[in-house]
């Protein structure tokens, strides 16, 4: 579920080089292509809200990048 502010920003897509997305799947595609940032007024807070909504709807994978693999050198040393 999105706030009205986030929904309206997506629905209008001001300043973006593409038209308003028609479906949640279109929004997920734009997110996966890192194109949601092109919408004027869509800052980190709304972007995170949209990302979480897409994740909860099962349209994208994890909402944040996974940490290092267990047992990797990066976990033990903090370096790759």
Explain this structure to me?
The structure is a single chain. By secondary structure, this protein is mostly helical. It has helices at residues 4-12, 24-32, 44-56, 73-77. The longest helix has 13 residues, at 44-56.
What is this structure's SSE topology?
Layout: H1 4-12, H2 24-32, H3 44-56, H4 73-77
Work out the helix count.
Answer: 4
* Low-confidence runs of at least 5 consecutive residues: 65-69
User: N- to C-terminal separation?
Assistant: 37 Å
Question: Taking all residues together, what is the mean pLDDT?
Answer: 83
Portion in strands: under 5%
Report on the biggest sheet: none
Rg, nearest Å: 16 Å
Name the overall outline.
globular
Summing up helix and strand content along with how strands pair, one would put the structural category as: mainly alpha
Number of strands: 0
Tell me the series of helices and strands, N- to C-terminal: HHHH
Q: Which bin fits the share of residues in helices?
A: 40-55%
Short description:
The protein is an all-alpha fold and 80 residues long. Helices cover 45% and strands 0% of the residues. The longest helix is centred in the middle third of the chain and has 13 residues, at 44-56.
